[in-house]
Amino acid sequence: MPDPTLLIEKLEQINEAIGRMKRRFQGIGSPDHFLDTPEGLDKLDGISMMLIAIGEAFKKIDEETKGNLLSLHPEINWKGVKGVRDVLSHNYFNIDAEEIFFICQKNLEPLQNAVTHFIDKLRNEI
């Protein structure tokens, strides 16, 4: 297992990114709200960037921990978390506002709970 302190730092960055996404998602009532105004598009862009960063970070964490950390939360679709990074990075001009809306509405809270659990577990191991 890699240095727990470095893992905690990465997980805290992810936690902060999720917080930004939740803040940017406030007031977005439907996928169309992302597309109807310049402010909505800015929120969509910002959330998408955070999804790219989170996906990349989890790819690295999964490699570093040889799959042992993420396996503690099998209820999270880790393949999807990591894969959305690839989709957004390679098709940035074709972002699916409905998919981003669904991710924000349904997946951020469980993901943040898992991240918080990982941080607590690693701190207890130090």
Between the first and last Cα atoms, what is the distance in angstroms? 12 Å
> C-alpha Rg, in Å?
15 Å
Q: Which residues sit in consecutive blocks of at least 5 with pLDDT less than 50?
A: none
Helicity level:
over 70%
Note the beta-strand portion: under 5%
Structure description:
The chain is an all-alpha fold. It has one domain (4-124). It is built from five helices and no strands. It has helices at 4-25, 31-35, 38-64, 78-90, 97-125. Helix 1 (4-25) packs antiparallel against helix 5 (97-125) and helix 3 packs across helix 4. The longest helix has 29 residues, at 97-125. The protein starts with a helix and ends with a helix. The model has no long low-confidence stretch (mean pLDDT 95). Pfam families: HepT-like. This is DUF86 domain-containing protein. Keywords: Hydrolase, Nuclease, Nucleotide-binding, Phosphoprotein, Toxin-antitoxin system. One of its GO terms (cellular component) is toxin-antitoxin complex.
